[in-house]
């Protein structure tokens, strides 16, 4: 793939495949497709520091998710962090937001730093930080939009979010802001290292540990997850359709 339009064609296919197979990785695919659409629209209106470079970054970034998905679907094993996200997508014991965050964990904490460094080549990595942050901002705003409307598919979680007053990330052991900061730090480390393949492998081990924390949040949070999950929508395809409505209605800057 060389263009965002090609990426979006494949993302549409993945979304439909997930509906047919009832794979909950489709929740992330819905969200990430909207991120990609938003980046494409921003490139068209020339809102990034370097719009052709942003397209290269987006294609590389999306390509890492798509390649991981293709590998998993063909029976090969992708990175451990993506493998966990895909395999747990078969299970109905996790919340919609857990499935979303498992995808975000692999894609931001592992893929984004690699993609940013590869996009820059031999140019200084610092040059891409602003546009790197804009991708994260779009993602965070879309996730916030999902949280604001989550009661449509997860009534109990929708009731809990106003009570915890912005500390809902504590319920699921994951912070998008921390992920963004860690991803940028790793982008610099990966950019400077001599053995990039080994660097990715070592990084993947640590990100898989974060995935396991999302999957196994501890006894108290597990109780909360079970309570919330009891009232969540059970149809994967219907939940995906509702998520698609949510993310398309979310306004991003």
Describe the structure.
The protein is mostly helical. It has one domain. Helix 4 runs parallel beside helix 9. The two termini are 27 Å apart.
- Tell me the number of structural domains: 1
Number of helices: 11
Oligomer: single chain
The number of distinct β-strands equals 0
Helical/strand content category: mainly alpha
- The dominant shape is globular
Concise synopsis of the structure shown:
The chain has helices at 4-21, 25-44, 51-73, 80-88, 96-120, 129-148, 155-164, 176-192, 196-215, 219-230, 236-249. The protein has 253 residues and is mainly α.
Q: What descriptive keywords fit this protein?
A:
mainly alpha; DUF5995
Describe the secondary structure blueprint for this structure.
Blueprint: H1 4-21, H2 25-44, H3 51-73, H4 80-88, H5 96-120, H6 129-148, H7 155-164, H8 176-192, H9 196-215, H10 219-230, H11 236-249
Helix pairs in contact: 1-2, 1-3, 2-3, 2-5, 2-6, 2-11, 3-5, 4-5, 4-9, 5-8, 5-9, 6-8, 6-11
């Amino acid at each position: 793939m060389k263009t965002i339009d090609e990426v979006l064609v494949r993302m549409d296919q993945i979304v439909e495949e997930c509906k047919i197979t009832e794979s909950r990785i489709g929740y992330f695919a819905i969200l990430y497709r909207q991120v990609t659409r938003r980046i494409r629209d921003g490139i068209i209106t020339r809102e990034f520091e370097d719009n052709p470079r942003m397209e290269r970054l987006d294609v590389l970034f999306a390509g890492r998710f798509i390649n991981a998905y293709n590998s998993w679907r063909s029976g090969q094993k992708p990175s451990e962090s993506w493998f966990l996200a895909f395999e747990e997508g078969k299970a109905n014991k996790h919340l919609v937001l857990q499935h979303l965050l498992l995808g975000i964990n692999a894609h931001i904490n592992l893929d984004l730093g690699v993609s940013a460094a590869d996009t820059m080549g031999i140019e200084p990595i610092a040059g891409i930080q602003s546009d790197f942050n804009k991708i994260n901002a779009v993602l965070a705003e879309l996730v916030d939009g999902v949280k604001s409307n989550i009661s449509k598919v997860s009534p109990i979680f929708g009731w809990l979010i106003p009570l915890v007053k912005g500390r809902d990330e504590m319920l699921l052991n994951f912070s998008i802001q921390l992920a963004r900061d860690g991803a940028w730090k790793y982008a610099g480390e990966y950019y400077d290292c001599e053995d990039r393949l080994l660097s990715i492998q070592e990084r993947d081990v640590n990100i898989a540990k974060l995935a396991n924390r999302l999957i196994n949040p501890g006894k108290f949070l597990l109780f909360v997850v079970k309570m919330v999950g009891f009232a969540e929508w059970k149809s994967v395809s219907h939940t995906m359709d509702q998520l698609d409505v949510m993310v398309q209605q979310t306004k991003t800057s």
